[in-house]
Amino acid sequence: MMKCISFVGTMIFALMLLAAMTVNAADVEIALEAELASKIQAPMAVGVPSDAKDKGGPEPDEPSNGEFVWAPGAPVAGGGGSGFVQFIIDIPEDGVYAAWGRVVAWDGNSDSFWATWEPADPAENPQQTQNFDFRWATAQGPGWHWDRINQWLDAGTFDREWELDEGETKLTIWSREDATMLDCLFITDNLAADFAGAGVREPTDEDRKLQKEGGVKQAVDAAGKLSTSWGRIKSDYKKD
To answer: pTM value?
Structure first.
């Protein structure tokens, strides 16, 4: 009898573990280089590590593709009133999505962006409206690190999630403070709170090729199910 109970208990635990793993499994993974965005609006610009040093801050490590995007300047109060980097992303299936950014934030004067993702978010310029719903507080640090896009409110900071239908979407990262740096983005329907649990990773050469040229790739996930793991990215670099 005890063996039977022990077996049943083990089976229940195994099923619960499998269910948890299924919930956290990602069907959609899209890795994007910031400097290959659909549009980069000045004063946001492409930079390299030595540019940061020239502006009076510490020189960061090499970014994933040798370049990053930022509003060039020293980390001082103010700045960040204009400019953005924008990605046109074709979401392959209906779902709830999270977005992570690989960032450098020198200090408290260079540790935030604004972020909107249409059509889940309204077509709003948060630089003008100062709507804190779209304020993203990045974790500080002089080296590249992953930070999930959040909602920085007076009441606290909360990870953002977007419910998106299949089709074209527009993700915009708006400058809020000079010197905040963005290396790359990772889009996923895995909503785990930590970057390791969400499977966050840097773009590969194949990611960069797809981002430049566009296209959709199918892949088999760990469960053997055919799932979309890459999104079609339209950019100014797309070939005719």
So the answer is: 0.82
